[in-house]
Amino acid sequence: MTLLFKPIQFEQLQLSNRIIIAPMCQYSANEQGELTYWHEQQWANYALSGAGMCIIEATAVQPEGRISFADLGLWNDLQRAQMKALLVKLKTISPMPFAVQLAHAGRKASTDKPWGGRGQLAPEHAQGWQTVSASELPFNPADHTPHALTIAEIKKVAADFAEAAKRAVDAGFELIELHAAHGYLLHQFMSPLSNQRTDEYGGSFENRIRFTLEVLQAVKNAVPQGYPIGVRISATDWISDADSWDIESSVGLSKALEQLGAAYIHISSGGLHEAQKIELQANYQVPFAEAVKKSVSIPVIAVGLITEAMQAEGILQYEQADAIAIARAALYDPRWAWHAAVELGEPIAIAPQYLRCQPRGLKSQFNAF
């Protein structure tokens, strides 16, 4: 068996293969952060993809934690009930587990949809609000200055992560991923470029990662024992500055997350500073995943311009990561996992309604759920 189609375990949850659909914002919720028909068809598409697991888009734990006014939320029970109803429907067509990425956008919140221009909307705008962050430093000069969270407000955010986690478990999500990457709130506390605090949440490395560790602990306390909680991080700010977040920082953070009981580390990068210079190419983030994997014993997920089956398999064979997250490639090709199975000569379980579509001349690789 190739490694890509070998099962993997995250705490009590076992995936049938190591292909994970990465969280991708759809900007299609209503303005109350609730599901729309778009999510019903999109999640159903994910469910039939053949991937080992799908992590749905960044889902805000507070209204002001949304990236845009059209993002999903899990800060109230109506949102939970809607997600629960949809997940029950999905189980009737596929056994694939669904996970949710809990998030708070911090100073990068209150934006327009990407196809509307993506720019930040001012607090006085009908669809905008006051953003928050570690310090009063906007993402770029054109943005509104964020409010620096007080200690009490920091504790409230952590508590709201925990409450959203309880709702996620009740809704039927089988794993929670905490979003500590891409320049959003937890990342803003970790990077010296966005955190200029002088209290216990600023200054030293230990102080700057404190908030992320407290959120993980709060969420773990809120869910059943053995329930998997993963963490997505940005391995580097992509800024050639001694005072930025880098891979050495990420290795230190990952060790601390492992000690607290994180189920895995999901390695992305960037998003913290407008001056970032990312060297985009195939596998461009894989060396970061490899560095973290060498330092922890929990699974590490690689992501970023991984688009081919042999490419994904090679990352696993060379022990650079333990699982592969597919994002835009899965949007472009919703049956990416099927095609990878055919290319690698591995069996894959699919919905029985689709068995007849297996190309002629191939070994019997498609099996029914």
Automatic annotation (TrEMBL):
Q: Which organism is it from?
A: Acinetobacter tianfuensis
Pfam families in UniProt: Oxidored_FMN
What protein name does the entry list? NADH:flavin oxidoreductase/NADH oxidase
Domain (NADH:flavin oxidoreductase/NADH oxidase N-terminal): give its ranges. Answer: 4-341
Task: Please give the InterPro entries that the UniProt record associates with this protein.
Answer: Aldolase_TIM, OxRdtase_FMN_N, YqjM-like
What lineage is this protein's organism placed in?
Bacteria, Pseudomonadati, Pseudomonadota, Gammaproteobacteria, Moraxellales
Query: Does the keyword Oxidoreductase belong to this entry?
Result: yes
Domain of life from the UniProt record: Bacteria
GO MF annotation, one: FMN binding
Q: Which keywords has UniProt assigned to this entry?
A: Flavoprotein, FMN, NADP, Oxidoreductase
Its required cofactor(s), as named, are: FMN
